[in-house]
Design brief:
The structure is a single chain. The protein is α/β, with parallel strands linked by helices and 213 residues long. The protein has one domain: Rossmann fold, CATH 3.40.50. Helices cover 32% and strands 18% of the residues. The chain is built from five helices and seven strands. Helix 2 crosses helix 3 and helix 4 packs parallel to helix 5. The longest helix has 23 residues. The chain is globular, with a radius of gyration of 19 Å. Keywords: Cytoplasm, Methyltransferase, Transferase. It comes from Emberiza fucata. It is found in: Cytoplasm.
Length: 213
Amino acid sequence: KMDDDNDIPQLSSHALAALQEFYLEQQQREGMKTSQGFNQYSIGSIEEDWQLSQFWYSDETASCLAKEAVLAAGKGGRIACVSAPSVYQKLKEQDGEDFSVCILEYDRRFSVYGEEFIFYDYNHPLDLPKNLLPHSFDIVIADPPYLSEECLQKTAETIKYLTKGKILLCTGAIMEEQAAKHLGVKMCKFIPKHSRNLANEFRCYVNYASGLD
């Protein structure tokens, strides 16, 4: 058996230079954004990271889900976005509206949002800050990062801990039975779209009378 170290692909100096250039350009882009008084909440201010299984919704879908969340939460309502950063960003664009929002997300780039950001790893569904009280959110919007029952089941623990009752889940159409089993949610007519086409058909599920039908 070959020595494991030898199996690690080494980047050629050419590839390394290209990579460094890419990072440099990215940093410059970031720098430009800040200097131009860039709106840090707009979609695309943080780009999707496929390695974290992130896929942003289309602008229209994100707006629609954000609007639904605000209506469902009611005046002065509290909204939690679990692994659904593009909805969170849309909610932030509606600043001054009468609601508050938290984002639970594995991607630490979202820590730019300060206190509203809560680091979240679905493998540890209840490993949450003490100040995040049980059943303290009027609605929880969640988009589990993987289409697996294990991921849904663990994310469901978090959702059930956070919500006072209302749940808006976005996941694959193939998860319909598991979604009903773990969260008691039903599929809506509304079909969420992503900014890039995903291979799996995606759907929304709710457990209350929503505007998504």
